[in-house]
UniProtKB/TrEMBL annotation:
<dbReference type="Pfam" id="PF00646">
    <property type="entry name" value="F-box"/>
</dbReference>
<protein>
    <recommendedName>
        <fullName>F-box domain-containing protein</fullName>
    </recommendedName>
</protein>
<dbReference type="InterPro" id="IPR032675">
    <property type="entry name" value="LRR_dom_sf"/>
</dbReference>
<feature type="region of interest" description="Disordered">
    <location>
        <begin position="534"/>
        <end position="566"/>
    </location>
</feature>
<dbReference type="InterPro" id="IPR001810">
    <property type="entry name" value="F-box_dom"/>
</dbReference>
<feature type="domain" description="F-box">
    <location>
        <begin position="130"/>
        <end position="159"/>
    </location>
</feature>
<dbReference type="InterPro" id="IPR050648">
    <property type="entry name" value="F-box_LRR-repeat"/>
</dbReference>
<dbReference type="InterPro" id="IPR036047">
    <property type="entry name" value="F-box-like_dom_sf"/>
</dbReference>
Length: 580
């Protein structure tokens, strides 16, 4: 054996290092050891600087390095610049947007997220594109996308962190920490909507209070057999602790028992399914809109007069009031008028059977600037409608008098003629047959057949649902877009005239088949008469314009191959949707 020449230790170390470095540079996949120090990757955090790798431009614009690795591939991202270019975005509101129609205000500010300069290899997928894809996913899809790789998990984390609005559905079998785990990902959350399929208690409410320090809008919806177990004391503590809360909407409030709400920021309050409240204290000086819906169960012991008096003392800025209760009466209306809310613009008192024309007189004399008045379910008559028309002709734009059996077609016609600013009117179940308990059952009683003629320049929505005694209808409303004729089963096709060229939706469920055919025919004729697609030509001397004959126009449009098919479809499309 020939003796080997002596190699100095320094030279040997250099050679070994060069060999190891060359070996690491050639290994692009399948490595389970750190590329810097050689230690196993599992549970290892390397503190050595990255190896010097020749930089090759990956994209035309400068990029910064981010940590990205797939399950079986080691990706290397090279930093080419420390001052990346940034793209400016304006009108940015929320990060989690999973609506079908996405516009500019649904985007999220990418300037503070450093996403426009990030590239995830080996697919070289820009994080901006990844952001645009992930922001259209619902929360469940975003959670699944975070499991793909580290790059996707980091982008999803930034998206959760930047989220300002979140709408989630809590399934029936959800665990206790399901809502908390999601909310902890969104420290900047401003608007939260929960659709509950499981029970809602104080634990979840406390989790919301702890995880969302900047919460301003909270909406809790219940569906199915879900039960809201929040008590009045727990709700009061939540409202007082959330000093930035401006809007609270909650369903299923049957277990409150009584409450005292104190807040200087709360401006909107909606509570539904209330029942037998022992006390209702509202210490909210900036409250603008309140909606209280009581359950229709028997034995409700709520004192509405005391409640209205309390509102008048502490919530003087109220503009919109909605109360739905079977205990509404003339005494409650008198208490409401005695308070005299100076800023009141919308008043809704629903299901008050004991509200009469005297109540209308009190309302019209105290509140002369109302824009919306809803007295559905009351006992007012045509005389009450006349009082409304005498006092509110210059302000009232929305009038709802559904389920008022003492109103006739003459009163409705008079109201539409005397209220020039009226845009919405609901007269459902007013002109109905008193002998018919079911409005869906046709009743041919000639003694109650009524006719209605409505001509209005600004009416946009008209509802006549359940008017089973209506057998003739004439409408001349050039701005009408929505018409509800559900269960008008006595309305005759030959007695129907619709002159509404802008009509978009007609509800005709429970009507005769011939009536539906007549509606479709008249709507098509109105559209054809209102739209003029005929071309105009100029004479040779340019002194006059003439209209081309219809036959020439149709032949030219149909035979011309260059005429876009999209425009032909636009002309021929059905402009009005009839729901039967």
């Amino acid at each position: 054996m020939q003796p080997q020449p002596h190699i100095p230790p320094a030279t040997a170390n250099v050679a070994i290092s060069a060999a190891l470095k060359s070996q690491r540079a050639r290994k692009n996949r399948g490595s389970y050891s750190c590329g810097r120090c050689g230690q196993p990757k599992k549970g290892h955090v390397c503190h050595l600087p990255p190896l010097d790798v020749p930089s090759t431009p990956i994209a035309p614009e400068p990029v910064t390095s981010i940590a990205a690795a797939a399950s079986s591939t080691r990706s290397t991202v090279v930093s080419l610049s420390s001052a990346p270019l940034r793209q400016s975005f304006t009108n940015l509101r929320r990060a989690l947007s999973f609506d079908d129609d996405v516009d500019a205000r649904d985007e999220t500010d990418l300037t503070d997220l450093s996403l426009d300069t990030e590239i995830v290899q080996p697919g070289r997928f820009h994080a901006v594109g990844l952001w645009e894809v992930l922001k259209r996913l619902p929360p469940s899809g975003l959670l699944m996308a975070a499991r793909v790789c580290k790059g996707w998990r980091e982008t999803a984390r930034k998206m959760w962190k930047a989220a300002e609005e979140l709408r989630i559905r809590v399934p029936k079998r959800a665990q206790i920490g399901y809502v908390g785990s999601l909310l902890q990902k969104c420290p900047g959350l401003v608007t939260l909507t929960l659709k509950l399929e499981s029970d809602f208690d104080a634990t979840t409410l406390a989790c919301i209070a702890f995880s969302c320090p900047n919460l301003e809008v909270l909406e809790i919806l219940t569906c199915g057999a879900a039960v809201n177990r929040i008590s009045g004391d727990e709700l009061g503590r939540f409202v007082s602790n959330k000093r930035g809360l401006t809007s609270l909407k909650m369903e299923g409030c049957s277990n409150l028992g009584g409450f005292s709400l104190t807040s200087t920021s709360l401006s909107t309050l909606w509570l539904s399914d209330l029942h037998s409240l022992s006390k209702m204290i509202f210490n909210c000086p900036n409250l603008i809109e309140i909606s209280l819906e009581f359950s229709q169960q028997e034995g409700d012991s709520t004192d509405l007069v005391t409640m209205v008096d309390g509102l008048g003392r502490t919530c003087t800025r109220l503009q919109n009031i909605h109360i739905a209760s079977l205990k509404l009466s003339h005494i409650v209306v008198l208490a409401l008028t005695a308070v005299n809310f100076r800023c009141l613009r919308m008043l809704s008192l629903v299901l008050g059977i004991d509200i009469t024309d005297a109540s209308v007189d009190a309302i019209s004399s105290s509140y002369t600037n109302l824009e919306l008045l809803d007295l559905s379910g009351s006992s007012i008559t045509d005389t009450g409608l006349g009082m409304i028309c005498d006092v509110l002709p210059d302000t009232l734009s929305k009038l709802l008098v559904a389920l008022c059996p003492n109103i006739t077609s003459s009163g409705i016609q008079f109201a539409t003629a005397q209220l020039p600013l009226l845009e919405l009117m609901d007269c459902g179940m007013t002109v109905s047959d008193p002998n018919s308990d079911n409005p869906l059952t046709p009743q041919k009683t000639s003694g109650y057949n009524q006719k209605m003629f409505i001509k209005h320049k600004r009416m946009k929505k008209l509802s006549l649902w359940g008017c089973s005694s209506l057998d003739a209808l004439f409408l001349n409303c050039p701005e009408l877009k929505d018409l509800n004729l559900n269960s008008c089963n006595n309305l005759q096709p030959e007695s129907l005239v619709i002159q509404c060229p802008k009509l978009e939706i007609v509800h005709a469920s429970g009507c005769q088949k011939l009536l539906t055919v007549a509606i479709r025919k008249q709507v098509s004729e109105n559209f054809a008469a209102g739209e003029n697609h005929m071309t105009r030509k100029r004479l040779a001397d340019g002194s006059k314009r003439i209209q081309a004959p219809p036959s020439l126009y149709q032949e030219t449009r149909e035979d011309d191959e260059n005429y876009p098919a999209k425009k032909r479809r636009k002309i021929e499309r059905e402009v009005c949707t009839i729901i039967d």
